[in-house]
């Protein structure tokens, strides 16, 4: 539904609801110019709300792209302003041994959001990133493009049609103790389920298969499937 100004009311509400999140995102993207970046992003977002279409992920991915693009423009603007007020030249060695000159203005603190070295690294790494991306096959390039555009891992996975999964490894000791025996020993020198060094022993597990089967079955009931279980 659009209001009298032709703006999507739902998009406007989402923008208002994510005000603090947007402020934090701008701070994380460029903490030295947070206020300026935030003002630019809000102005840009309000001016572009008519074109916003929710693809099922809410407004955050759309706002992340705006933040990224606005920050790039702000960085270019700052660099250009610094270059106009030249006080000295800072020289770096390039990859091929050539001399790379970057203008630095240490006088005007208002233009010190990016140091000369930071500007060099920013431009240098951007070129390297583009060259590295060109060597990747699809869909790997698309994955990185979505990441650079501000999409979360979950959103990227959904767009790519994959279901990422991960597992954790846990190690623990098994002891032949109960509450009474443990109290009697005063918490010292517990008796292990099987003694000695027995890495990856199927025999030891088979001797206690009811116990190990119970671990797998009951963990599955908790929604935590176990892919592998062995002694060590």
Report what the structure shows.
The protein is mainly α and 232 residues long. Helices cover 52% and strands 5% of the residues. It has ten helices and two strands. It has a two-stranded antiparallel ribbon. α3 (34-48) crosses α4. The protein is elongated and about 75 Å long. Mean pLDDT is 76; it is low at 86-93 and 100-112.
Tell me the layout of helices and strands:
Blueprint (H helix, E strand, L loop, with lengths): L8 H9 L1 H11 L4 H15 L11 H25 L3 E6 L5 E6 L11 H19 L5 H9 L4 H8 L18 H6 L17 H6 L1 H13 L11
Antiparallel strand pairs: 1-2
Helix pairs in contact: 2-3, 2-4, 3-4
Features:
single chain, 232 residues, 52% helix
**Would you tell me the structural class of the helices and strands?**
mainly alpha
Radius of gyration, Cα only, in angstroms?
Answer: 29 Å
| Unreliable sequence segments | 86-93, 100-112
Strand content: 5-15%
Secondary-structure element sequence? HHHHEEHHHHHH
What is the total tally of β strands? Answer: 2
Helix content: 40-55%
Average pLDDT metric: 76
Shape: elongated
**N-to-C span:** 62 Å
Q: Give the neighbour order of strands across the main sheet.
A: 1-2
Sheet of most strands: 2 strands, antiparallel
Tally of helical segments: 10
